[in-house]
């Protein structure tokens, strides 16, 4: 490709075409056409950066030519030459032909040169932006595949190790050896939990919304079943209430990320002694869903309450958690246009209140 800017000039007067070519051929690569049909053919076959067309031509006018050209090749930047004052034609050219600018006839050589260079700058910036967007889309798609493939490849061996460990413990009676297998189970459990956290992190921060109808009762029931398999809740007093009075539309995956991380925190940051309580309430009505997760755990000191929503921030030295949970909650909530409020007292407990708007059917 030549380094010169490629310019197509359409005019029904041959003298104008010759004059244009002779004047500008040293600065630009010039293509000329005597009518709109020839111009459309060139625009379709050649790489053109800037197109200049006279408004008054037999057959198609300049505006009509640009309107057809947009459908064939929308990329070149369009300039209209007009030798008369017709506001209706100007408006028409803007609306239908997406014209970059107008130049009065007879044109001035410096004005034409500057207009072409400015229009070409826009052309090349748009092309660069388009190429970068395509690369980003490709990268986004590849990242989705990578994350899910990586999680699958990591979890497979982990589940095998965990399964073998459980079988080995059944065959052994030596308590010292059993302790080693308990350590293996603990380590694999932590790694598996971290993999889940990374998947949740990706879902909550990198993946676009997928809006569907939400049945909170079904979601909460499913999640509670999963929690009972994952955590030992035999020593917890659980209170779960769902009141959904209207249809609600939102992102199912992000709602599960929110519930998972709030519940996980409520379990992990409990006091060693005393009654352990966790309550989950969901109230849906008046165009919003309010999710409240409350516990009577160790709580959060006031100095940490703003920081806990930051990436990898922790409000305790207790060796649990990844520092991702509340960050993911905040990201998921804000992406859906909601709010999250923390209310906590040390040694008394924490209440997390999430309010989400109804992303109704029009957003599907």
From TrEMBL:
This is histidine kinase. It holds the Pfam family HATPase_c. Its EC number is 2.7.13.3. SUPFAM superfamilies: ATPase domain of HSP90 chaperone/DNA topoisomerase II/histidine kinase, CheY-like, Homodimeric domain of signal transducing histidine kinase. Residues 149-360 form the Histidine kinase domain. The modification 4-aspartylphosphate is found at residue 54. It comes from Algoriphagus oliviformis. It comes from the Bacteria. GO terms for molecular function: kinase activity. Residues 6-120 form the Response regulatory domain. Keywords: Kinase, Phosphoprotein, Transferase. It catalyses: ATP + protein L-histidine = ADP + protein N-phospho-L-histidine.
């Amino acid at each position: 490709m030549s380094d010169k800017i490629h310019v197509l000039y359409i005019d029904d007067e041959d003298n104008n075409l010759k004059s244009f070519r002779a004047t500008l051929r040293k600065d630009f690569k010039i293509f000329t056409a005597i009518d709109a049909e020839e111009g459309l053919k060139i625009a379709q076959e050649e790489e053109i950066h800037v197109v200049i067309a006279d408004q008054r031509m037999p057959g198609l006018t300049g505006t009509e030519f640009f309107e057809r050209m947009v459908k064939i090749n929308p990329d070149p930047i369009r300039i209209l030459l007009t030798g008369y004052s017709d506001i209706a034609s100007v408006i028409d050219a803007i609306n239908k032909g997406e014209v970059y600018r107008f130049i009065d006839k007879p044109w001035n050589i410096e004005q034409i040169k500057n207009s072409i260079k400015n229009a070409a700058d826009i052309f090349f910036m748009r092309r660069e932006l388009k190429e970068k967007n395509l690369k980003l889309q490709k990268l986004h798609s590849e990242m989705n595949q990578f994350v899910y493939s990586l999680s699958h490849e990591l979890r497979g061996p982990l589940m095998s190790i965990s399964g073998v460990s459980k079988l080995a413990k059944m065959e052994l009676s030596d308590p010292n050896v059993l302790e080693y297998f308990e350590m293996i189970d603990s380590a694999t459990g932590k790694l598996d939990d971290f993999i889940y956290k990374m998947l949740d992190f990706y879902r909550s921060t990198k993946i676009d919304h997928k809006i569907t109808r939400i049945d909170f009762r079904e979601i909460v029931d499913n999640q509670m079943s999963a929690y009972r398999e994952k955590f030992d809740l035999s020593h917890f007093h659980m209170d779960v209430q769902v009141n959904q009075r209207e249809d609600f539309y939102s992102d199912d995956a992000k709602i599960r990320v929110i519930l998972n991380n709030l519940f996980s925190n409520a379990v992990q940051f409990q006091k060693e002694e005393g009654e352990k309580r966790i309550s989950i309430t969901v109230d849906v009505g008046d165009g919003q869903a309010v999710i409240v997760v409350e516990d009577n755990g160790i709580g959060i000191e006031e100095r940490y309450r703003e920081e806990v929503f930051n990436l990898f921030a922790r409000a305790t030295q207790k060796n649990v958690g990844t520092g991702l949970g509340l960050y993911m909650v905040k990201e998921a909530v804000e992406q859906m246009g909601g709010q999250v409020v923390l209310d906590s007292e040390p040694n008394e407990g924490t209440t997390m209140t999430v309010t989400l708007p109804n992303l109704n059917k029009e957003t599907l």
